[in-house]
């Protein structure tokens, strides 16, 4: 009886202290961080693939192969005049580093110095950030910085970001609150900066190729990698970008050949997989 009463009193004290603390929380900060884009199950799913991330025959080989089309395209969204000003790219959901490293390599091969290009990779799974950091070759280390973070937390903590290009490649279909995710991603871009987003479409064709064929029949991805309910229709993505004052510049479809492990741009395949290039209004 005495123990029960003691516990009740303790409970009251704790709840009073919490409501006291809540009253003194800065309202804006609470508002900014109440909506999380993180879905722990989705992030854990990719963490489990960390050991095989860079394996040429591993479950993510198609994602790595996608660099051959997306890296030059993303690079072309930058104003590539070399005028001494540093160009900055934000890679949201950078995983084990395929895209950040691919972009750094691309600019390295073009002779860009570390003072001309910077790539920031954000990834909420620390295991994957470790993989990305340890895979990065010595000569690219000055061009890439990886952080364990979500875009909403990163932008709230670093409000004056001015990225020339913000990249979300094969990520939005794994987040919670995609509208918030996109809002913070656009916020990280400078006015006039580019947004690049790629994701599977939401259609019977994407279900057949991505889920039925690639996961269940060919076993290219582990079964359950994609959740059909989380896929986003192109029109919804375009509407969200426009709501965030972005002008749509181009939409492309892409096609994967699993036999040769190669990707091609092909607009007939927009319902299966699409990429959007948009520009943030000045
Ligand atoms: C399919 S992988 C894509 C990796 C990389 N973008 C690429 O294309 O090579 C999806 C990545 O998004 C990350 N992710 C999931 N939810 C996220 C969120 N809310 N914010 C940022 N990244 C997230 C996952 O942890 C995973 O590394």
UniProtKB/TrEMBL annotation:
Instruction: Extract the signal peptide range.
Output: 1-21
Residues reported in the UniProt entry to bind S-adenosyl-L-methionine: 70, 93, 169
- Tell me the keywords, alphabetical order: Magnesium, Membrane, Metal-binding, Methyltransferase, Mitochondrion, Mitochondrion inner membrane, S-adenosyl-L-methionine, Signal, Transferase, Ubiquinone, Ubiquinone biosynthesis
> Which GO BP terms, alphabetically?
methylation
A Gene Ontology cellular-component term: extrinsic component of mitochondrial inner membrane
Top-level lineage group = Eukaryota
Q: Which residues form a coiled coil?
A: none
**Pathway in which the depicted protein is active:** Cofactor biosynthesis; ubiquinone biosynthesis
Mind telling me which SUPFAM superfamilies this protein's record contains?
S-adenosyl-L-methionine-dependent methyltransferases (SSF53335)
Its EC number(s): 2.1.1.64, 2.1.1.-, 2.1.1.114
Task: Give the required cofactors.
Answer: Mg(2+)
Q: Entry's Pfam families?
A: Methyltransf_23
Q: Which GO terms describe its molecular function?
A: 3-demethylubiquinol 3-O-methyltransferase activity; 3-demethylubiquinone 3-O-methyltransferase activity; metal ion binding; polyprenyldihydroxybenzoate methyltransferase activity
Name the membrane topology term: Peripheral membrane protein
Q: How does it assemble?
A: Component of a multi-subunit COQ enzyme complex.
This molecule's function is given as: O-methyltransferase required for two non-consecutive steps during ubiquinone biosynthesis. Catalyzes the 2 O-methylation of 3,4-dihydroxy-5-(all-trans-polyprenyl)benzoic acid into 4-hydroxy-3-methoxy-5-(all-trans-polyprenyl)benzoic acid. Also catalyzes the last step of ubiquinone biosynthesis by mediating methylation of 3-demethylubiquinone into ubiquinone. Also able to mediate the methylation of 3-demethylubiquinol into ubiquinol.
Query: NCBIfam families this protein is in?
Result: UbiG (TIGR01983)
Q: Spell out the family assignment given in the record's similarity comment.
A: Belongs to the class I-like SAM-binding methyltransferase superfamily. UbiG/COQ3 family.
User: What name does UniProt use for this protein?
Assistant: Ubiquinone biosynthesis O-methyltransferase, mitochondrial
Species in which this protein is naturally found: Folsomia candida (Springtail)
Cite the source lineage: Eukaryota, Metazoa, Ecdysozoa, Arthropoda, Hexapoda
């Amino acid at each position: 009886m005495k123990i029960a009463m003691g516990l009740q009193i303790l409970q009251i004290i704790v709840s009073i202290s919490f409501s006291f603390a809540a009253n003194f929380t800065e309202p804006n900060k609470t508002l900014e961080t109440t909506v999380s884009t993180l879905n722990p199950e989705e992030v854990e799913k990719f963490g489990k693939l960390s050991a095989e991330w860079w394996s040429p025959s591993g479950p993510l080989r198609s994602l790595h192969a996608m660099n051959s089309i997306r890296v030059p395209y993303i690079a072309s969204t930058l104003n590539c005049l070399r005028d001494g000003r540093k160009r900055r790219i934000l890679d949201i959901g950078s995983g084990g580093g395929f895209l950040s490293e691919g972009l750094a390599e691309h600019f390295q091969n073009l002779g860009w110095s570390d003072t001309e290009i910077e790539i920031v990779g954000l990834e909420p799974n620390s295991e994957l950030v470790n993989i990305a950091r340890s895979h990065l070759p010595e000569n690219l280390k000055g061009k890439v910085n990886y952080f364990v973070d979500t875009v909403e937390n990163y932008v709230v903590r670093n409000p004056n970001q001015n990225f020339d290009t913000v990249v979300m490649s094969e990520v939005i279909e794994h987040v919670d609150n995609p509208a918030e995710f996109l809002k913070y991603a656009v916020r990280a871009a400078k006015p006039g900066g580019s947004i690049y987003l790629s994701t599977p479409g939401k259609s019977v064709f994407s279900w057949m190729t991505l889920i039925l064929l690639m996961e269940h029949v060919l076993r290219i991805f582990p079964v359950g990698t994609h959740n059909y309910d989380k896929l986003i229709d192109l029109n919804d993505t375009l509407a969200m970008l426009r709501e965030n004052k972005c002008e749509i510049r181009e939409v492309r479809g892409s096609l994967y050949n699993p036999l040769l492990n190669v990707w091609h741009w092909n607009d007939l395949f927009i319902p299966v997989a699409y990429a959007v290039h948009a520009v943030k209004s000045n």
